[in-house]
Amino acid sequence: MREALRQANRIVVKVGSSSLTTAEGGIDPARIQRLVDAIVDVRAHGTQVVLISSGAIAAGLSPLGFASRPKDLASQQAAASVGQGLLVQEYAERFGQHGLRVGQLLLTVDDVTRRTSYRNALRTLGKLLTLQAVPIVNENDTVATHEIRFGDNDRLAALVAQMVRADALILLSDVDGLYTAHPDDPGSQRIVQVSDIDMLQVDTHKAGTSIGSGGMTTKLQAAHIATSAGIPVVLARADQALDAMTGKDVGTVFAPTGKRRPRRLLWMAHATHARGRLVVDEGAVRAVVERKASLLAAGITEVEGDFVAGDPVDVVAPSGKVVARGLVGFSSEELPTMLGRNSHELAEHLGQQYEREVVHRDALAVLVRRLR
């Protein structure tokens, strides 16, 4: 795994707010300088780097007189509006010292769930890399609402890593890896490598810092997204950035558990929000998960939600577990009359236009690797 990291041609690096700012909330120039120097060093050896940088809200706290991160959305958006410019200006100056340009991309969930916007973001990132600029990506906190947020830049980083076909994802934080228990607990030890994140049993439910918005749980969620798409992940402390990017024995490395899939399926699985749920029987679960088959009306037992043809919906096992997500071919008004009927019955009673899959396998992303 470490050798694979050393040979990576393109990496995505995510850094958290607490690793870029002072305890009071202002930008820490020394921390940003160390990160920039590390990225420049890696680029000098031919590796492309996309930087996912938190810190906009944190950078705007002190200038606006906030003593801590505000709870209300309007104040967070105001802080982000002030802080984003300060943050990018700092990056531009630091990279500029090395003769490098930076390009800023501010994204919301809608930008990666709408296919047209997704393609536009991908095109911009690709062009910036071709032009030897350093793409700096952040969530657009100035316009994002609670309902359309990534929640934390860790998830955004995993989605961008999929988008640009990165060879590795580096998550930089204020902790030097994943531990068997909380790092402050006596006897807690750093986990050097995780071979299968699905088998991991570590309690990570602890809030992040007062400056940032995430914690270890969100980092593991991001690692799960990336590794399931065939992308190795390293979790390390921000001051270990260079060692982490060059495959040194720091932090925790998460091995890929899945294969690279078409971007459309990755987008389907992790960047969409389901508009409804299709509860299916055990036979349909096996067909979808094990045989990678299309979902037919005969296997659906219940329809939940309000959606139209083309919307993303979750496919749910009898146990309540979501096993897949896909683009549905019929609306929530049409489906109830189709449940449990095979193709012949659908054609006979409803017309030949109903003699087709509810969710075609080419528009269906399986979300579990095995049935238990």
- The number of strands is 13
**What is the straight-line distance between the termini?**
28 Å
CATH superfamily name of the largest domain?
A: Acetylglutamate kinase-like
What does the largest sheet look like? 8 strands, mixed
- Estimate the global geometry from the Cα principal axes: elongated
Name the helix and strand elements from N-terminus to C-terminus, one letter apiece.
HEHEHHEHHEHEEHEHEHEHEEEHE
Q: Based on the structure given, which CATH architecture of the largest domain is correct?
A: 3-Layer(aba) Sandwich
Find the CATH topology of the largest domain: Carbamate kinase
Helix fraction bin = 25-40%
Query: Which residues sit in consecutive blocks of at least 5 with pLDDT less than 50?
Result: 207-213
Structural class: alpha/beta
What secondary-structure arrangement, pairings included, does this model have?
Blueprint: H1 2-6, E1 10-15, H2 29-43, E2 48-53, H3 56-61, H4 73-96, E3 102-107, H5 109-113, H6 115-130, E4 134-139, H7 153-163, E5 168-173, E6 193-194, H8 216-228, E7 233-237, H9 241-245, E8 252-254, H10 263-270, E9 276-280, H11 282-289, E10 300-305, E11 312-316, E12 322-327, H12 343-350, E13 364-366
Parallel strand pairs: 1-2, 1-5, 2-4, 3-4, 5-7, 6-8, 9-11
Antiparallel strand pairs: 7-8, 9-10, 11-12, 12-13
Helix pairs in contact: 2-4, 7-8
